[in-house]
Amino acid sequence: MEKEQQLEAKYGLFTAISMVIGQVIGSGIFFKVDDVLLSTQGNILAGLLGFIIVGVSVIFGAISMANYAELLPKDGGILNYVNYRFGEKAAYFVGWMYLSLFYPLLTAVLFTVSGIYIAHLCAEFLNFEPTTLHFALIGFVNLLIFFVFNIFRPKSSGIFQQFTTVLKVLPLIFIASMGILSLVKGDVSEANTFAYAAKNVKENQSLMLLIAASFIPISFAFDGWYIATQISGEIKNSSRNLPKALIIGTVAVMLIYISYYMGIVFRMSGDEIIQLKDTYITEFSRKIASDSGALLMQLFIIISVLGTSNGLLLATIRVPYQFANLEKSRKFLNLNAVDSKTKMPVNSAFLGLGLIIFYLLIYYITGTHPYFTASNFDLSAIPIVFIYLVNGALFIGLFRLFRKNVFSGKPVFKLLMAVVAILGIVVVLFGTATAPNGMLYFLVNILFIAVGFLFMKRTDKNHF
């Protein structure tokens, strides 16, 4: 397919690494530790081993995905990988799901989450009780602000991505340091040590099963590393820098997560964290730095979520452009046009904005209507199911490429990494399918794929 217009390569290696780290380190790590310990029934050793196992599988997944990034340094990222390995029809349906469901829905969720944190911070100074409506409205305003930056100041958006990535890592490193210092000083109680956790597994418990139970919340905390591939055409020297960014970024995230987890559990017991739930991080901050520390931690979390939201928005507004350039997609709304002044696909961006606003409304409804709240329906789980299916297919697709010897390096190591990455995918999908509403999440994905047939270019007629 010929393209008369190409996106400008304007992002360097550090921005690409920032994309990987920034998309993973959002609100997940701060608010998944309690879920991890709940899954392990308070056993901190099982949680630590879970972080190590999932982290290693994610790194292998990134290395496996880097094989595609090395072969196909084009704009489109995973869309091009699917097209290369499985053909134009498969790429079309991935592109359709990206446009209609995956990116706009996750972006809407993250901007709403930014509204949650900002509303709760404001509630500490103003006399009001935050509601779901406050969360949605603040998230909507944040969306509009960052949309303007991404359209008219895309380089400034990249700088913000770098800034928030550095800033959001600081509290994680600080907490990790506090835990290490406590260990060195011998200021860790015996009940908070991993040795104690290993010796005190209850008779009706299995350490292996406790570790396995932690995989699901940890996997969600690690999700998002692949989103950097979405702007591969705008990364300078993409064939070298994108694989580096995927590998360096995921390794950095694993080390940061494990250190953060250790810093938390050395100072707070597993039972205490479970009891406090999502507020454990605020209470942890109060314990080591009083109310001022808790306030500062809230500010860091807000910046963290906004950085993640901006990264998702950066990708979302480009998805319609990429979808319009697929061979099998119908052309509409001039989505593949790039503005000569801003060097941005403006029509694509506005369609992406409209879809995000639509999902902001849907997320508000599912968060307030009794039908959804009574069953603990999680809208954000739907796109996660989709992307794990796609990534799993890509990893499986590597085996045929290995047989063709299209990659450099040692094929045995690449094969082993792909196997581990596939096992990680299987764990997440099995856990989702057996969870409440799990099969419904799969069904919604199937329905969206079916709707995609309506937007596929007809092969029997010469029109769009």
Task: Describe the fold and architecture.
The chain has helices at 13-24, 28-39, 44-71, 78-86, 88-123, 132-152, 154-185, 194-199, 207-213, 215-222, 238-265, 270-276, 280-316, 319-324, 346-368, 370-373, 381-403, 411-434, 438-451. By secondary structure, it is mainly α. It has one domain (13-455): Amino acid/polyamine transporter I (Up-down Bundle), CATH 1.20.1740.10. Helix 1 (13-24) runs parallel beside helix 11 (238-265) and helix 5 crosses helix 15 (346-368). The two termini are 15 Å apart.
**What's the CATH topology label?**
Amino acid/polyamine transporter I
Poorly predicted runs are 1-5, 460-464
Task: Find the CATH superfamily.
Answer: Amino acid/polyamine transporter I
Helix content: over 70%
Question: Helix and strand succession?
Answer: HHHHHHHHHHHHHHHHHHH
Main beta-sheet strand count, sense and barrel state: none
In short:
This protein is mostly helical. Helix content is 73%, strand content 0%.
Supply database-style keywords.
464 residues, mainly alpha, Amino acid/polyamine transporter I, 19 helices, disordered N terminus, disordered C terminus
Describe the secondary structure blueprint for this structure.
Layout: H1 13-24, H2 28-39, H3 44-71, H4 78-86, H5 88-123, H6 132-152, H7 154-185, H8 194-199, H9 207-213, H10 215-222, H11 238-265, H12 270-276, H13 280-316, H14 319-324, H15 346-368, H16 370-373, H17 381-403, H18 411-434, H19 438-451
Helix pairs in contact: 1-7, 1-11, 1-13, 2-10, 2-12, 3-9, 3-10, 3-11, 3-18, 4-5, 4-17, 5-6, 5-13, 5-15, 5-17, 6-7, 6-13, 6-15, 7-11, 7-13, 17-18, 17-19, 18-19
